[in-house]
Each structure stands twice: as structure tokens, then as C-alpha cells.
Write a structure and sequence with these properties.
Length: 489
Amino acid sequence: MYRILLLVALGWIAPYSLLGQTSDQGIRNAFHSISSHEMLDNAKELTSPKYGGRLSGSPGYMAAAKWVAEKLKAAGVKPACPDSGYLQLFPNAYSEVLSAGSVELLKDHQTQGRKYRFPDDFFPGSNSAAGKVKGDLVYAGYGISAPELGYDDYKNLNVKGKILLLESGVPYGANDSLQKRWEPYSYHRYKFSHAKEMGAVGLLYVGRVANPNTSFVEKFVYAHVGEEVAEELFKGSGKTYAEMKKEIAQKMQPASFDLKKRVMIQAHTVFHPEGTSCNVVGMIEGSDPVLKKEALIIGAHLDAVGSPGTLFPGALDNASGSCDILAAAEALARSAVRPARSVIFIFFGGEECGLYGSKLFVQSPVWPAQKVKCMINLDMVGNGRGFVLANGKSYPELLSHFKMANDQFLFRDFAATEVRKNYGRPRTDGAIFESAGYKTIHLYTSGTVKTVYYHHPLDNTDGLTPEIMEDAAKLLYLGILGIANDRSL
């Protein structure tokens, strides 16, 4: 059926005997209506300062969500939430970062002091408490106390009143069943609350990445620092930061110690426990009276990391995926060939805060899970030359529709992988659906064209390649239409 539709779209087969009164010109019109210029304009809108970096829970994010809902409405995509229209609301506390604050290595008789620079050396903590802390600096490895795993970074270590230098993640690197036992200790929230419980007053978190997926802890001030800063803080200790991190992972033994330095961290923030966020959920009802009871779900997260010290536009991550889906939704809404199955479009909130929106949708679905044929997730699909469909090889009946669309129309590099179980912390909205039993495919790009700035102020529309975004939307349009109309599934 899909091959026939593709041939019709090119005018290779007269459409009337196959599709009644539907003209092949209508299919071509929908396909060619997907415009990189319009998609780039949409990305510029979503990354504009008026939305404040789309931090989930903030008024700026809610304004961006309502803009997307209006775009869906204008295209004829219907609201999917029975009681609340397009917006599936949920509570989402957030912190407003008023300035970059400061991180300073304090001068003493052994150490030359230094004020670190934002954004080259550090980023402010997205959920830091407001205030200023000074203290001795202690390297506490991964900040984990896991007696059942025979591991404790705090063993014989006094951190009361001190500031910690900590790693993110866990020291165990293999993706196997043992990794699952480490998962609870990989969460930033665990590390922060445990550090406070152990008596620490502040934290330098290694990894210069803006990250709202942390917890607000009363009177606990923190910032993110780059590895270069960590190396400087190790000077005079007889060890290097890189060697120490490698040694912990190799021996699976803590190596915490006092760095014999003092630092000061200052944060200017306001905590908003009353924050509200949402998923934006639209749908195109299927045209077949029986098959319309089944659905496809297409999702991408709409939120970004806000304005911690300056605007972080969040263009590639993930205005790109949101704009790809929006363009595909508009094309499907105007398509002369209608999807037989229903199609649901979700713009997730709270992804950067901890996959809040996808967890909510899976727990409170607007469509019965057993009636969903697949979930397709897009994250950072806006910079590259080709396509990768992760998990696609495990679902050849779904993959074939996307491969044919690419082979017949787009001619991009195209690859797919099989499902590979992840035992660690889930990192994408698609992983939540995958864990809940949905057939999930992740659409990515290959062959990066421009520099990728991840959770960085330079993640703006200059880093996008609009041509791959246009083709991603076209791939979605044809692939979704093919799956929706495939009666063999």
C-alpha cells in the first residue's frame, strides 16, 4: 500500500482507480509544502528571548507551549486531552537564575587566587539556593554511599561545613544488570541531598553543562565547573583530576581527599515551588472507521534549560525536534491522502527536569497503550547530513516505511540499529515509552555539519542545518502516512 502511495505521489500511477477522488497532486502539495524557511522561522520564534529559554515550569515555557498549541489549531490538528484541550498540565517547580553569580578560588599562602569566568569556566547552578558560601574544598569522588555495593565516597571523610568537588554519574561503566543497581545513585538529586545530609554547604559539580535536572536544597549553593577548572583545583595535591577519575573507575574504589584549597560560590536565584508545566498534545483522527481506534505517537521535548546567567536558546536541543514534528503535523493535516489510523503529536514539557512530561503521559495516556502501534521520538534532529533510526532494525515492519521514503524521495545517508537494553538512568522521553512496553523508534541525524553546543548559550539557530530539518519532517510525513495506512500491521 505504501509503495503505491509513493508511486501515486510522483504521478507514476493514475490515482483515481486507487484513491477515489483524491489527486496525486494533493500528496505532492503536502510533501512540498514542508519548507526549511518556515521551519527556521519557527525555530527562531521558539528560541527568542521572550520565552526565556523555555525552562519547564516557568511562564516563558507556558507561553511557548501556547504558541505551539495555536499553530496546531491553525493547521487543523485537534486537541487530544479530553478535559484540557491541547495542554496536559502538571506541577513543575523551577528556579529563576537572576545572574551568573560567581565562583572563586580564594588566595592563601600556598594558592594564587582566581575568579573564574562565566561561561568559559563555570555555569551557575540551575536550582541552587541563593546566597554565598566559603569553605575548604574536598574532592568526594561521585558523592555516593552505597553499602550494598561495597562503595562509599564519604567513608572516613569529614565534609561538615565544607564545599565538595563532585563527579556526575557513577564509576561503574558497563551496560549490564549490575548497572541497574547503580542507577539510584546516578541521579543528581540523590547526590545533592546526600551531600547536604553529610554536612556539606556547597558543591562544584564537574561538567560545564546547564542542567535543571537537579534539586533545590535549602541553603545549599552550587555551580557547574569545567574539567579544566577541576584540574587547576587539583594542582599541588600530587595527583591530577583526570588520573584520579580514571583510577576510581578502574579500581572501583573511592579516592576522596581534602584538596587543601578554599573556594567561594555565590548564587542569585529565586525558587518557585508553585511552577506549572505541560505537554502540548494534538491529534489527527484516522479516516478508517476501524483503524482510527489505533494510533501512532510522535514526540519531541519542547522545553530547554532556561536562562541560567544568560539566555540558553535551546535551538538544536530541542526546538529542532519540535519544529520537525510541527511541520510534519501540518503536512499530514493538509494531506490529500488521510492517515487511516489516528496520529498523536506530543510536545513534552519537563524533559530537561527529569522526563516529567513523558512520565505523566505514560501514566495518564490520552490513548490506550495497547492501541498504539509505535512511538517515534525526536531529540536534537537539526544538524547533520543523514538519518539514523535507533531501534528500527528490531521493527522491520515500521522501518521499511521510512527506508522506502528515504530511498525514493530524500536520498540521504540512512542507517538503523536494533533495540539495545539500557540498564542505566533513562535520558530521553522515548526511553520512558520503551520501558512502558511501547514499540519505540528514535530518529537522529548523522554526519554533524556544524559545531554542537549542548546546554550552552551558543545553542542558537546559527547551529541548525534547516535542510536536514526539512527532510526530517518530510521523512516523518511519508513514514507516518505509510505506517498509518498499512493494513498488515
